[in-house]
Amino acid sequence: MADDQVVIRAPAKVNLSLRVRPRDWSGRHPLLTLFQAVTLFDLLEVVPDDEDTLTIEGAELDDGPENLVWRAVEAVRASVGRDPRLRIHLTKRIALAAGLGGGSADAAAALEGLRHLLGSRIPSGSIAEIAEGLGSDVPFARLGGTAMGASYGERLSPLDPAPGGYALAIVVPPFELSTPAVYTTWDQLDGPEGPKIDGRQLPPSLRAQGPLQNDLYPAARFIAGDLADWHADLEGLWDRAVMMSGSGPALFAFFSDLDEARGAIDASPSNARAAEAVEPHQRGAERVEEPGAE
Fold first, then answer.
1. Is 13 a catalytic residue?
2. Does the annotation count 137 as an active-site position?
3. Which residue among 20, 205, 209, 272 sits deepest, i.e. has the most Cβ atoms within 10 Å of its Cβ?
4. Which pTM does this prediction carry?
């Protein structure tokens, strides 16, 4: 790998719990969420070049200025007062519009890549400020591990020691959900609470955090009627409680280890948009030594 090439691995996140409150003065919804980074990664390669290019592998995404990668780059450029040209290649493995934070992960990866390339030329504290401005999940995508997110998700309290001792099976049904549409529907439904799981339904390391629930699930189910069928089918196949991450439609359940989670994935419907067995990951976006590193 060239000395000036930076390769960043960015983990997906799962909202193990998501409590939502009505819109406040800002027009946004205050929330309290339990974030967990997991071992499912997008990969971003950044190389200085004569002109800007962004290529994307593994998903059909707009490569123009509205892409969160470019928005992160432009924000850093503004903070340093210079305009380094970059060749960027993004390899997508995190499903789109699924509630797994893939866009935020990519933005965090871009910030981490430029931090390595530009170093002390970036003003102190500007990366954290930029991350918060890009989206409420981006600060956690930089931090990783396990954390409580308050305010709109950007005020983070890392849990130390981070919970572990379990694996997750994640299944993404074959449709997408718009985050703004889910929140709007939640408002229209008068802010319902989501179903709760606690006690022996949770891994021992998470029981002190229970009950866990996702208040956006009723709104997501209202928009996409098939979500309830997928939820019920997976609970029947896996014989345990199933939850939704973020604004959905990704569904997940807890298992004792990675082998058990892989067995659950093998038993899941073949028409899922994505299906992954993962473990908790204790870091956020980070540099790796080789472009193909997992």
1. yes
2. yes
3. 20
4. 0.93
